[in-house]
Amino acid sequence: YQRRVHGGKCKGKLKNGKDFIWVEVKSRIIQNNSSLAVLLVVSELTDKIENIQLKEIDEFKDKLLAVVTHELRTPLNCIIPLIATALESFDIPEEIRTKILRPCLSSSKLLQNLVNDILDYYQIKHNKLRLEMAEFRIRDKLQEIYQLFEVQAQMKNITMRIEVDEGVSEYIYSDPNRITQILNNLTSNAIKFTPSGGSVEIFARRGICDENIYLEVRDHGCGMSSDIIQTLFTDFVSKSKTTLSPDFRSNPTGMGIGLGISYNLVKLLGGEGIQVESEPGKGSCFSFEIPISIKDNNYTLDLSPISPKRHTTFTSLERITREVIVMKCTCRNVLIVDDNMYNILSLKAQLVNYNLNFLKAFDGQEAVDLIENLENKIKGCGSDICQRIKIIFMDYEMPQLNGLKATAMIRDILKRKEVPEIPIVLNTAHNDAETKAEALKVGIEMFVSKPSSTAQLKEILTALL
């Protein structure tokens, strides 16, 4: 055993010449009459130092994961609305809608779900994930799930069916986004591992007690053995690579985190995790039960089954509503503030049918300067500032000046100029409660989650114009 001492610490090297250990040496001189002695205390630090190094590496990976996934969301926030807008155009042939646009939209949304899973994994790991409770219609969420996977199921010749029991309240109170995320993960796996000609079914029933809802995703695919079920909720274990089933091995996609995240989300929602029933060759059933706050007052229950043939095109009622909004929005200006040009183009494409004039700013400071220096009339509008700009769509994360600081400064400018306030809508991927609370303090009226949907924008235009 050889060692070298440096300032009270030494690094030891074993005789085999391969491994190193870290030690700390503390010394003290002791005098006893005419004799001197040196007391040495040697402590091994190998485990402690290795733990510190592993923690630093883990923190770096987490930061890298958060940055990369955020950057992945940026192009998706542009792609998804543009495809959805193209689908709403009445000039595009149905064959192009069916064979090109709908598969593109479905694939983009599935990629978005994967990115969201990665972000959620990071938040769950660091205990940062927060629920966003709201009242919502459970049938609407199930219909959204059907529409998301409709193309994928048709391409594999898989029958999808959604069933809601009469005992389920029409409106419930929980986190709609998290429930949708769980069902998306379960449905995606069900379709992935169901062979052509099979079926996937989603059920919603009343739970064991009236305050619970029971949700189930069942497939008639290849099924799983008990050994595979034990590894289902282990992070980064791809289920397609751990089974002996040829049907699983033929579909090796997935990182193995979706089910683990879904399991934790169910527990966060108050459930006991996800229950699994499966047998090789006979399919699988994933189910969970969570508490809800049921709201029955003043609601008319629609207990008719959900039709699986409904598509995402505009209904006649929506066209009428859109025509009314066009009349209300004539010659009104919208300021879009975003540091990404493609996000601006995407939002403009979604609003193009509403007969609006558009202004743009590429960061918060540019938006503040525009409001401060806007003295000349904009063509087709009145002379004062509140008539020139009717709504501001404000991004959150921007260089120089972020959206919330820019909003606060714009509020001060409008107050100083003694003109009516301009509604400001925060257009962001940050949906946590802290961001919303901070946004409300500086004067944000409404929120749009990226990627924005036509339904969200229509609701905002109706409310603010």
Structure explained in plain terms:
There is one protein chain. This protein is an alpha/beta fold and 465 residues long. The protein has 14 helices and 17 strands. The strands form four sheets. It has a five-stranded mixed beta sheet, with helices on one face. Strands 14-13-15-16-17 form a five-stranded parallel beta sheet, sandwiched between helices. The protein has a four-stranded antiparallel beta sheet with strand order 1-2-3-4. The chain is globular and about 100 Å long. 26% of the residues are buried. Mean pLDDT is 76; it is low at 1-9, 239-255, 294-330 and 376-380.
Task: Please summarize what this structure is.
With 465 residues, this protein is of the alpha/beta class. The protein is 44% helix and 23% strand.
Separation of termini? 81 Å
Average of the residue pLDDT scores? 76
What percentage of the residues does DSSP assign to strands (E)?
Answer: 15-25%
> DSSP helix count?
14
Structural class estimated from helices and strands: alpha/beta
Radius of gyration: 29 Å
Output the keywords:
single chain, 465 residues, alpha/beta, five-stranded parallel sheet, 14 helices, 17 strands, disordered N terminus
Question: Helices, strands, pairings?
Answer:
Elements: E1 2-6, E2 9-13, E3 20-32, E4 35-44, H1 46-88, H2 94-125, E5 134-137, H3 138-155, E6 159-164, E7 171-174, H4 176-192, E8 199-206, E9 212-219, H5 226-229, H6 246-249, H7 258-268, E10 275-279, E11 283-291, E12 293-294, H8 316-329, E13 332-337, H9 341-351, E14 356-361, H10 364-373, H11 385-388, E15 389-395, H12 403-417, E16 424-428, H13 433-442, E17 446-449, H14 454-464
Parallel strand pairs: 6-8, 13-14, 13-15, 15-16, 16-17
Antiparallel strand pairs: 1-2, 2-3, 3-4, 5-7, 7-12, 8-9, 9-11, 10-11
